[in-house]
Amino acid sequence: MKIIISIVLAIIVFSGIAFGANYTKGSWRDTDRDGVKDTYVDGYYKTAPNNSKLDNYSTKGNVNPFTGKEGTVNPNNNDYNNSYNNSGYGSKSLRNKNNW
Asked: Is 77 among the domain residues?
């Protein structure tokens, strides 16, 4: 009986994780902008997109179920703007600076 309960709980937990996350495939990046893709970025799981900052894996009080890492970003101030929008690839400040 304990085995059946354990299996049912595992199915519930893992199905919840699967529906709440998106996988981003790994890719090669040109980190020094010389035209050569020289750095491999591993694939990773991220929370499914929505309008809330409170359920992101990186938010304080949350734990990434895939890595076990605790969130560090405070959703009540501008930490999200600083850590995500100015992170490098795709940030508005970088595009404007390089005239993309």
From this structure: yes
